[in-house]
Amino acid sequence: MSPSPNIDTSDFYAFEQMLSDSERAMLHSVRDFMTTEVDPIINTHWNAGTFPFEIVPGLRKLGIAGVPYQGHGCAGRSYLLDGMIAMELARTDSSIATFNGVHGGLAMGSIYLCGSDEQRERFLPSMARYEKIGSFGLTEPDVGSGASGGLTTTAERDGDTWTLNGQKKWIGNATFGDLTVIWAKDVADGQVKGFVVENSSPGFTADKQEHKIALRIVQNALITLDNVRVPEHNRLQGANTFKDTAEVLRLTRAGVAWMAVGCARGAYENALRYACAREQFGRPIGGFQLVQDLLVRMLGNITSSLALCARLSQLQDQGHAEDRHSSLAKAFCTVRMRETVGWARELMGGNGILLEHNVGRFVADAEAIYSYEGTREMNTLIVGRSLTGHSAFV
């Protein structure tokens, strides 16, 4: 017996109906592209640790870079649509969702939120068309969660030019991208400032980080800045303290929560297909009680996480989203994702670790999503501070 054709077995409460007709059409275009163009090649690239550059023209046609930004060549659509697109990308592959999140969220978001009108117009149109690929350089080899006060990358001004020195680690897209938003501490006032750095600048090197077990398609780099000269007109004019950096992270942390839902959803859908096709003892294992219990647990995690993310996106569209909202979503959804992909692998038994069944890829990639854009512990402290009025940060 097959599922009823009127039941979406992963969007069980029809959250997609919250979108307008035109937004839903755009989401379906993304789904079709990921199904027909990305899904057939993704395991090969994941296994090799290579990026599928052949899909970039298709992404350009979809117009999904910087979806919620107004003007400057961007779509100007809702945060709800932007979140659902992030989920849709991750539903097929978390690395492609991360690539777009770094480019369209972190890099373009930094320029959109912290740049001047001139800088937005200079950089964003070509980035929206994927003609210029962006990266985001905040994390350092010895500075992760403590970035708000511990950056060691420095920026020193000399007239109309800044000199940047230091290193950045885990910087997605930087091995092949065109520009990177670098966050550095101004030696004059000790405040964090943002700079749009051309990757071709003398003294800028990006070495690929090898031997990853997660998000293998994402080309992470260790960036070294050796007396890199950046003109003042490339300093983000609205980025003068780490609070400005945090505005960007608030935006993109919500996107990561959506990616976590997509990762969980992709693992669940692969497990469900497997359960309906795999036969043991003369019948599909989907007819066994314990298998159905696992499927329902997965669906419950996905549905509750989707509800949380949908409400968060509504708050963003209304201008009411705060750090505590994004942090709760990121902490909750990534925990539920980790649990869900584990159950999907459990349902498949030994086959769950084979790349050909896809779930093993989701299990591995979930480990990266669980950690980046703020660990569960750091996001818990942000929410806890909002609840009690007391900061537990060291």
From TrEMBL:
Domain Acyl-CoA dehydrogenase/oxidase N-terminal: 21-130
Pfam family, one: Acyl-CoA_dh_M
Biological process terms in GO annotation: fatty acid beta-oxidation
Cofactor: FAD
Recorded GO MF terms: acyl-CoA dehydrogenase activity; flavin adenine dinucleotide binding
Domain of life the protein comes from: Bacteria
Keywords, in A-Z order: FAD, Flavoprotein, Oxidoreductase
Residues in Acyl-CoA dehydrogenase/oxidase C-terminal domain copies: 246-387
Keyword ATP-binding: no
Acyl-CoA oxidase/dehydrogenase middle domain boundaries: 135-228
InterPro entries named in the record: ACX4-like, Acyl-CoA_DH_CS, Acyl-CoA_Oxase/DH_mid-dom, Acyl-CoA_Oxase/DH_mid-dom_sf, AcylCo_DH-like_C, AcylCo_DH/oxidase_C, AcylCoA_DH/ox_N, AcylCoA_DH/ox_N_sf
Keyword Oxidoreductase: yes
Family indicated by similarity: Belongs to the acyl-CoA dehydrogenase family.
PANTHER family from the UniProt entry: ACYL-COA DEHYDROGENASE, ACYL-COENZYME A OXIDASE
The protein, known as: Glutaryl-CoA dehydrogenase
Organism this protein belongs to: Rhodococcus koreensis
